Amino acid sequence: MQTHISIERLRLFWNLDLRADGFCMEARQHQPMLAASSLSTHFPSINRHRRTIVIPEIRGDSVLVYIAIYKGEEGNNLKFFFDYFSSDKEKKPMTICFNGIQLHRSRFIFLHDKKYEEDVPGYWNYRHIRLSGIEANIRRLEISGGECRMDIARLNAREQSGFSISDFRSKTTFSKQKLYF
C-alpha cells in the first residue's frame, strides 16, 4: 500500500471525543490524499461479526482531499482504499459509516496526470479540478463493497475557473466505475 499517515497531536478526552491536529495521509507519490489542520469525532464502534466500523459525526477544519490519476498507473491514488473495502469472495465486504461530516474552510483537488493542460482563467479544466472554500454538511457517508454512498445536505464551494456551487444537495453514489447524483 505504501501509505504514510502522520498526526502532529492526538487528544483523547474523558467523554471519548478524539481530536487529531496536523493529520496527513500521503500516497506513495508523497502527495497528501487527505490532510487537515484538525479532525474531531467521538470514539468509533467496531463490529467484527458484521465487519462494520461506525464513526459518529466527524468535524474537519482546513481539510484537503487530493485525488490524482498518475501517468502510467491504473486507477487513482485512492484505489487501494476502495479495493480494501471491496468484496472478498470468502468474506462479507467491510463497511465503514460516517454518521455525519462537517467540513469548514476546506479544499478538494482532482489531478489527471502530473502533466496537465495549462489552466485558462474563466474556463473549466476537467483534468485539474480545484475546489476551495468548501463548507459542507454530509449527513451520512458509507463505504462498502468498493462503493461510496453519501447524503449531501449542504455543499458550498468555488472552482478555480470561477464556477461556484451554492447550497448543493444530493444523494450520491460513486465507485471506480460510476458516479450518480
In short:
By secondary structure, the protein is mainly beta. It has one helix at 79-85, and strands at 4-12, 17-26, 32-42, 45-47, 52-69, 95-112, 128-144, 147-159, 164-175, 179-180.
Describe what you observe in this structure.
Strand 5 (52-69), helix 1 and strand 6 form a beta-alpha-beta unit. The mean pLDDT is 85. The protein is mostly beta strands. Helices cover 4% and strands 62% of the residues.
Descriptive tags:
single chain; about 180 residues; mainly beta; ten-stranded mixed β-sheet; about 60% strand; globular
Task: Summarize the topology.
Elements: E1 4-12, E2 17-26, E3 32-42, E4 45-47, E5 52-69, H1 79-85, E6 95-112, E7 128-144, E8 147-159, E9 164-175, E10 179-180
Parallel strand pairs: 5-6
Antiparallel strand pairs: 1-2, 2-3, 3-5, 4-5, 6-7, 7-8, 8-9, 9-10
Total count of helical runs of at least 4 residues: 1
Query: How far apart are the termini?
Result: 30 Å
In one word, what is the shape?
globular
**Radius of gyration from CA coordinates:** 17 Å
Strand content: over 45%
Mean pLDDT: 85
Sequence of secondary-structure elements: EEEEEHEEEEE
Helix content, binned percent? under 10%
| Structural class based on helices, strands and sheet pairing | mainly beta
Number of strands: 10
Show unreliable segments. none
